[in-house]
Design goal:
Largest sheet of chain A: 4 strands, antiparallel
Largest interface: A-B, 59 and 43 residues
CATH architecture of the largest domain in chain B: Sandwich
Strand order of the largest sheet of chain B: 1-5-11-10-7-8
Number of domains of chain A: 2
Number of domains of chain B: 2
Low-confidence stretches of chain A: 230-237
Shape of chain B: elongated
Largest sheet of chain B: 6 strands, mixed
Number of strands of chain B: 11
Radius of gyration of chain B: 19 Å
Number of helices of chain A: 12
Distance between the termini of chain B: 58 Å
Mean pLDDT of chain A: 84
Helix content of chain A: 55-70%
Order of helices and strands of chain B: HEEEEEEEEEEE
Mean pLDDT of chain B: 82
Structural class of chain A: alpha+beta
Oligomer: heterodimer
Radius of gyration of chain A: 23 Å
Number of strands of chain A: 4
CATH superfamily of the largest domain in chain B: Cupredoxins -  blue copper proteins
Order of helices and strands of chain A: EHEEHEHHHHHHHHHH
Structural class of chain B: alpha/beta
Shape of chain A: elongated
Helix content of chain B: 10-25%
Chain lengths: 340, 132
């Protein structure tokens, strides 16, 4: 039986660990001797036992990895940005920005009148927080991450994992704060670094979402390679772990509301008091965040996906810049620019 | 209507919404940029600057006297938003205010022409104290 080597171009590769999944799945196909994926060139070198034509093999193997969003092609397809999609994306992004500005000016915070923060008060504060200035940080980050996942053909389970990670971490960490009686207070420098890092992440994800600069893909934050090698046999698990961790990490995002609630959790003095406070708050923020992630995944498929990604990209870039500028202002480096 | 008309109309509409919101909220707040609210009163040799922190800092521009010790008194009323994360970067003041209560920050005498900028932790809300 002769061995025939074919080199195919892989469409849909966007993360360094994706090659592991492709290698695993294709290796299981009967008749395939070996698979080697080149992450840098986005090619897959496949050795098969069959004498079939390259096109047939490409088609058959693509069917195996299609559900994960990959296809194998003979030729490298050239990338051309679809500028016409900006005709819709730009005005839509402007309208959403105006709506965000109006929401802040509406002064919804004045609705909060709680001397004693019970469960429903914490929930109500969460509701208000989810449309306040924190929307630019947490909502903006969630938009960029879920739009990116939608672009990569992410599964619905990813967004469930994100929200579960967030709500569970708020419960657990809220309880920890209540128990040990001290909150995670960031120094001025740490807050500045955190705000800048979040802003830069949003900028890089936003640029990538625009689908205009192919080189922007390299700027994306990746899981470090040594971590992905360790989970080689469970490549799909790695895909699931990331949204869970991102959701849990939102506890530490710079958001005045979260910090106030953390201070209140501290004052409860018990694990259960702190846990329920943060849990109720996280539940309050859930509707708006769920709306963002759900819409992203839905719009990310279908014919409006291109316009959606560009709109999301513009909004994420705008929010990312705003958050970074505000971080600098809060640190006293520059005068305040974006005020409400 | 063709695509360019749609684009231009949307941009004008969005710009109109933003400008309209700006104009409406400015006029209802009744604070012009040239009018700074005066610092409230004196207490035992120090001037008291009273600021309410809830959904922002009010008043947002305050005129105070230079050359005398100052106490900045920040009042919160069920404040859970970013205003509770009170900071004056130039003085190294950073404090999470309690949701309801009064917090005082003594400030050394400032020179005429100095300005103190108070900001919320995220940088979105600010109050400026102008010393004359």
């Amino acid at each position: 039986m002769t061995h025939n080597k074919h080199i195919f171009h892989v469409q849909g590769m966007h993360c360094k660990a994706c090659g592991l999944l492709i290698t695993d799945k294709l290796s299981e196909v009967p008749g395939v001797v070996s698979v080697r994926v080149d992450d840098a060139r986005n090619t897959a070198e496949v050795v098969v036992e069959t004498e079939a034509a390259a096109e047939t093999i490409a088609r058959d193997l693509s069917a195996v990895i299609e559900k994960d969003g990959y296809t194998l092609t003979i030729e490298k397809t050239r990338f051309v940005p679809k500028w016409s999609e900006f005709r819709y994306a730009l005005p839509i992004a402007l309208v959403f920005s105006a709506a965000f500005y109006l929401l802040q000016k509406a002064g919804l915070v004045n609705l909060i009148n709680a001397e004693n923060v019970n469960f429903s008060a914490a929930f109500g504060i969460g509701l208000v927080a989810s449309v306040s200035s924190c929307l630019a940080v947490v909502g903006g980050l969630l938009l960029s991450v879920s739009a990116q996942y939608a672009k990569e053909g992410g599964k619905k389970t990813s967004q469930i994992l994100f929200h579960a990670g967030r709500i569970i971490s708020f419960f657990v960490l809220g309880g920890v704060i209540g128990l040990i009686g001290s909150a995670f207070t960031l120094s001025s420098l740490a807050a500045l670094i955190l705000g800048t890092v979040v802003g830069l992440i949003m900028l890089s994800l936003g640029l990538n979402l625009l689908e205009v600069f192919p080189w922007a893909k390299r700027l994306q934050p990746h899981m470090p390679k040594f971590l992905t090698r360790a989970t080689k046999g469970v490549a799909q698990f790695e895909h699931g772990l990331v949204p869970l961790l991102i959701g849990a990490s939102t506890f530490f995002l710079p958001c005045g509301f979260t910090q106030s609630m953390q201070v209140y959790s501290l004052s409860t003095g018990t694990f259960f008091g702190g846990a329920m406070t943060m849990f109720a708050f996280a539940l309050g923020t859930f509707p708006v965040l769920a709306l963002i992630s759900f819409t992203s995944v839905e719009l990310g498929k279908g014919k409006w996906s291109g316009v959606f990604f560009k709109t999301a990209g513009l909004l994420v870039i705008a929010f990312g810049i705003m958050n970074m500028v505000n971080s600098f202002a809060a640190a006293g480096i520059i005068r305040p620019v974006f005020g409400f | 209507m063709n695509k360019y008309t749609f684009l231009i109309a949307s941009i004008i509409l969005a710009a109109g919404i933003i400008v309209g919101a700006f104009v409406i909220t400015r006029s209802s707040a009744g604070v012009s940029s040239s009018g700074a609210a005066p610092a409230t009163h004196m207490e035992g040799g120090a001037q008291i600057v009273e600021i309410t922190a809830k959904g922002g800092y009010y008043p947002s521009v305050i005129a105070a006297r230079a050359g005398i010790p100052t106490i900045i008194r920040v009042r919160t009323r069920s404040t859970f938003d970013c205003s509770a994360a009170f900071t004056i970067p130039s003085l190294g003041i950073r404090k999470m205010l309690p949701p309801s209560g009064v917090s005082e920050f003594p400030v050394p005498a400032q020179r005429a022409g100095d300005e103190l900028q108070a900001l919320c932790g995220m940088g979105m809300y600010s109050a400026t104290i102008q010393f004359r």
